[in-house]
Amino acid sequence: MTVITAKWTIDEYHRMIAAGILDDRRMELLKGEIVEIFAEGEPHAYFSSEAGEYLIQLLGNRATVRPSKPITLPNNSEPEPDIAVVKRLGREYLEHHPYPENIFWLTEYSDSSLDKDLQIKTKVYAEVDIPEYWVVNLRKRQVVVFRDPQDGEYASKITLTTSTIYPQAFPDLAISVSSIVNI
């Protein structure tokens, strides 16, 4: 028997949301598939919240920090990264969620979703040229930094437990790894 999964477009996904079909469930659209979002444990909620506040203070008016909000990608994906650092477009976001060209970098905090974030989402984001993607491995207290998307993969991957990250979009901005994962 051959199993064929139904693929959904972003418009169809939005219609399901508007119709209330997905109420009471935390979902996101990844490459046309509706995927359940894992419940956040206390460490996930704590670290992502604290890091979001740290980045807001650090970035000031240079960018907008959007915690756990959708982004819209042209590969029929509408994920909800834990932190999206995006261009300050103000009221334009009333018309659409951030598109790849609006995104400086994305961060996912991962424990139970680690495999999905390191394998599936890495490909989803690289495929649409998100320039930088961080996965915070809560199990090991590490930040995995993916950069330089090429042919649907990230060409660069570094894993940090200490030190400083200088985001590609803001090379003069020093972000302490401990402020992202060991707050």
Tag the structure with descriptive keywords.
about 180 residues, alpha+beta, six-stranded mixed β-sheet, two-stranded antiparallel sheet, 10 strands, globular
What fraction strand? 25-35%
Count the DSSP helices.
Answer: 4
Distance between the termini: 50 Å
Overall pLDDT? 93
- Write down the overall geometry: globular
Series of secondary-structure elements, N-terminal to C-terminal: HEEHEEEHEEEEEH
The number of E-state strands comes to: 10
Structural classification: alpha+beta
Supply Rg: 16 Å
Major sheet: arrangement of strands: 3-4-5-6-7-8
Segments where pLDDT lies below 50 for 5+ residues? none
Largest sheet: 6 strands, mixed
In which range does the helix fraction lie? 25-40%
Short description:
The protein is an alpha+beta fold. 26% of the residues lie in helices and 28% in strands.
Layout of secondary structure:
Layout: H1 10-19, E1 27-30, E2 33-36, H2 42-59, E3 64-67, E4 83-86, E5 103-110, H3 114-127, E6 132-137, E7 142-150, E8 153-160, E9 164-165, E10 175-176, H4 177-181
Parallel strand pairs: 5-6
Antiparallel strand pairs: 1-2, 3-4, 4-5, 6-7, 7-8, 9-10
Report on this model:
The chain has 183 residues and is an alpha+beta fold. Helices cover 26% and strands 28% of the residues. It is built from 4 helices and 10 strands; from the N terminus they run H-E-E-H-E-E-E-H-E-E-E-E-E-H. The strands form 3 sheets. It has a 6-stranded mixed sheet, sandwiched between helices. A two-stranded antiparallel sheet has the order 1-2. The protein has a two-stranded antiparallel ribbon with strand order 9-10. The longest helix is centred in the N-terminal third of the chain and has 18 residues, at 42-59. It is globular. The model has no long low-confidence stretch (mean pLDDT 93).
